[in-house]
Design goal:
CATH class of the largest domain: Alpha Beta
CATH topology of the largest domain: DHBP synthase
Number of domains: 2
Bound molecules: adenosine monophosphate, magnesium ion
Helix content: 25-40%
Order of helices and strands: EHEEHEHHEHEHEHEEEHEHEEEHEH
Shape: globular
Number of strands: 15
Radius of gyration: 20 Å
Number of helices: 11
Distance between the termini: 29 Å
Strand content: 15-25%
Length: about 350
């Protein structure tokens, strides 16, 4: 493969037009979304989609999410049941992916040969412009090397894939910072969350008028693979060992942990009066909201992974809100041993 060096494009009308043509020719473009950056290709072009797997080093038994700009585009790719129509109306454009029975035009490489396809209508204004300009559904997994932490800035994409792709569209830091909620609606009477994200489960239940189950990460991997291939126990992982704590204590500056990093989602009470915490203490959310913590989680893990730390300690989120569950899901996968 020839060495490439990606160009980072600002979202000007000219750049959008250029990138739309690149996608129509079957090239890859890294794109901003409100969740994480994606590595996009024309979802109806099997050769283009195959190059996504090559660039990421992703196994082809891990199917891709297809991004659309309209319900008409969804209907070309999948069979929309009433449940899908209801949640699409309530949550799209937004961080919700629907798994639905697919139509025959969707190439096997996109769905790993399954008879279902995962579809999302993203909210990021630049990606919406690009989807409209290229007028193709775009298959896009996260724009990182397989297994590493998902990218939430154009710079993260450049760091990880800069010499494997030609184009990156810079849309600024991702607003949410965690991957979409994946809702399986193949059987609309038994909706299941395959991957937790920012959408609250009670909200989905209200819109669907029935219980929504959360596929547990404690299922055996064979069972999980049967429901949703690609739901790996280990994923999103820094190279530095990561240790999780239900309650993390602020280290004393004299403690023998100077080479270990301590990550808090929200400001711990022991720090509230301290102006400058020790250099090995990191607080993801200055305001104390989980939205802010989610927004900076992956960026902070990447930064710490590049630092001199021998170990990263992180505190788990408390409570049962969607973001608490999603953050703990990503942290648990990031900390899992292979
Ligand atoms: P990502 O890694 O963010 O691209 O998310 C893709 C994930 O969506 C995969 O790892 C699967 O778990 C899930 N997925 C995609 N397509 C399907 C499908 N057709 N059926 C079930 N799950 C799917
Ligand atoms: Mg991914």
């Amino acid at each position: 493969m020839p060495k490439l060096r990606a160009t980072v494009h600002r979202g000007t009308p000219r750049a959008i037009a250029l990138l739309a043509r690149a996608l129509q020719r079957g090239e890859l473009v890294a794109v901003p979304t409100e969740t994480v950056y994606g590595l996009a290709a024309d979802a109806l072009n099997p050769r283009a989609c195959r190059s996504i797997f090559r660039a990421k080093g992703r196994p082809t038994n891990d199917p891709l999410i297809v991004h659309v700009h309209s319900l008409a585009q969804l209907d070309q790719l999948a069979i929309r049941n009433e449940a899908a129509a209801a949640v699409a109306k309530a949550f799209w454009p937004g961080p919700l992916t629907l798994v639905l029975p697919k139509r025959s035009c969707v190439p096997d490489i996109v769905t790993s040969g399954l008879d279902s396809v995962a579809i999302r209508m993203p909210a990021h204004p630049l990606l919406r412009k690009l989807l409209r300009a290229c007028d193709r559904p775009l298959a896009a997994p996260s724009a990182n090397a397989f297994g590493y932490i998902s990218p939430t800035t154009a710079e993260h994409v450049l760091d990880g894939l800069g010499n494997r792709i030609r184009h990156i569209l810079d849309g600024g830091p991702c607003r949410i910072g965690l991957e979409s909620t994946i809702l399986d609606l193949r059987d609309p009477k038994h909706p299941k969350i395959l991957r937790p994200g920012a959408i609250e489960r009670p909200e989905l239940e209200r819109v669907l008028g029935r219980r929504v189950s959360l596929v547990s990460r404690h299922l055996t991997s064979a069972k999980k693979a049967a429901i949703a291939p690609g739901m790996l126990t280990k994923h999103y992982s820094p190279r530095t060992p990561l240790e999780l704590h239900a309650k993390l204590r602020v280290p004393r500056s004299t403690a023998p942990h100077a080479d270990e990093a301590f990550v808090f989602l929200c400001p711990p009470s022991a720090l509230r009066k301290t102006k400058a915490p020790a250099a090995n203490v990191f607080v993801l959310s200055k305001t104390g909201t989980l939205d802010d913590a989610a927004h900076s989680l992956f960026a902070t893990l990447r930064r710490l992974d590049r630092g001199k730390w021998t170990r990263i300690h992180a505190e788990l989120a408390r409570g049962q809100s969607a973001l608490a569950i999603a953050i703990n899901d990503r942290l648990t996968r990031a900390a899992a041993k292979r």
